[in-house]
UniProtKB/TrEMBL annotation:
GO terms for molecular function: ABC-type oligopeptide transporter activity; ATP binding; ATP hydrolysis activity. It is found in: Cell inner membrane. Gene3D superfamilies: P-loop containing nucleotide triphosphate hydrolases. It holds the Pfam family ABC_tran. One of its GO terms (cellular component) is plasma membrane. It comes from Nonomuraea zeae. This is ATP-binding cassette domain-containing protein. Belongs to the ABC transporter superfamily. Siderophore-Fe(3+) uptake transporter (SIUT) (TC 3.A.1.21) family. PANTHER family: ATP-BINDING CASSETTE SUB-FAMILY B MEMBER 10, MITOCHONDRIAL, ATP-DEPENDENT PERMEASE MDL1, MITOCHONDRIAL. It is a multi-pass membrane protein. Residues 24-273 form the ABC transporter domain. Keywords: ATP-binding, Cell inner membrane, Cell membrane, Membrane, Nucleotide-binding, Transmembrane, Transmembrane helix, Transport.
Length: 289
């Protein structure tokens, strides 16, 4: 997978990591970014069963992105453990773990590389397999955009936000935020056979129609696979096998959409408020949680 966080020192004795069979367990996971920072996670207990989709929801700053970064070993729990079929992730080299994960992060990296390399990035076999890259781009709905670029998949993409400060001319083609988001999604589609799929706000920056389309594609991709999805669009994750509400650094609620709605707790409150926002044509905030 694409790495975009601070790397941890690899342990001296790595264990190999077998394909996921049972699931991933977070056991009393506590985490803070440093001793000077407040606790973000305060004893999270959670099981992500093999073959199921777990949706993480909750208010801003609740620790959802932090939790998935721990799953990828960008950080380790300050206390507690994360177990992959019983194997403590601390005993696994980060790159071994990440070979088993396909991920799209909120803060995904846009590289000054060609369109093809931006999709295949980090996957040597894929970078030599144009057909695979193109299929992933089609799945993510970005093939037509890329094919229309001056040099198609060989066109250099520009991140477009560093050049002015550095006093350099931007080279390459600028994509919109939503188009970049689809490039990031294509990376995940390319890695569809990985054991764990992580999608952190996969439709961020997309217009409502594109968002609906992307979520439908992702629902098909996720089906029968182990995945963790973060989204504030509760309607887009209501079909998840398990919905987990993170609040106050712990799992506050957990269940199916129907069960949580019937429970009348935080999830029911958030969902009802969002649904009401969509029904109200003149809702001033656009109804995004
Ligand atoms: N690299 C970091 N260093 C220090 N604090 C951080 C860092 N990243 C996140 N935080 C803090 O950790 C807390 C949890 O953030 P996180 O991004 O995990 O929440 P979230 O639930 O994903 O939020 P959102 O819904 O807004 O995306 C926040 O208070 C945030 O400020």
């Amino acid at each position: 997978m694409v790495t975009d966080g601070p790397d941890l020192p690899a342990p001296r004795h790595h264990k190999p990591l077998a394909p996921l069979l049972r699931g991933i367990e977070l056991r009393d996971v506590w985490f803070r970014y440093s001793d000077d920072h407040p606790w973000v996670l305060r004893g999270v207990n959670l099981f992500i069963p093999h073959g199921h989709t777990v949706a993480l929801v909750g208010r801003n700053g609740g620790g959802k992105s932090t939790l998935v970064k721990l799953l990828c070993r960008f950080y380790d729990p300050t206390r507690g453990a994360i177990l992959w079929d019983g194997v403590d992730l601390r005993d696994v080299a980060p790159e071994t773990l990440r070979d088993r994960i396909g991920a799209v992060f909120q803060d995904f990296v846009a590289y000054e590389l060609t369109a093809a390399d931006n999709i295949a990035v980090g996957d040597l076999a894929a970078s030599e397999d144009q057909a695979r890259v193109e299929r992933a781009a089609r799945d993510a709905g970005v093939h037509d955009t890329v094919a229309a670029l001056p040099y198609g998949y060989r066109t250099l993409l520009s991140r477009g936000f560093t050049s002015e400060e550095e006093g350099e001319e931007a080279e390459g083609v600028l994509l919109s935020g939503g188009q970049w988001q689809r490039v990031a999604l294509a990376r995940a589609f390319l890695r569809r056979d990985r054991d764990l799929m992580i999608l952190d706000e996969p439709s961020a920056g997309l217009d409502p129609e594109a968002e609906y389309e992307v979520h439908s594609r992702l629902a098909r991709l996720r089906s029968g696979r182990t995945s963790v999805v973060i989204s504030h669009r509760l309607g887009a994750v209501r079909d998840a096998d398990r919905i987990v509400v993170l609040a106050g650094g712990v799992v506050a609620e957990e269940g199916t959409h129907a069960a949580l709605l019937a429970g009348g707790g935080t999830y029911a409150q958030l969902f009802t408020r969002q649904a009401a926002g969509y029904r109200d044509e003149v809702h001033p905030t656009g109804a995004s949680l």
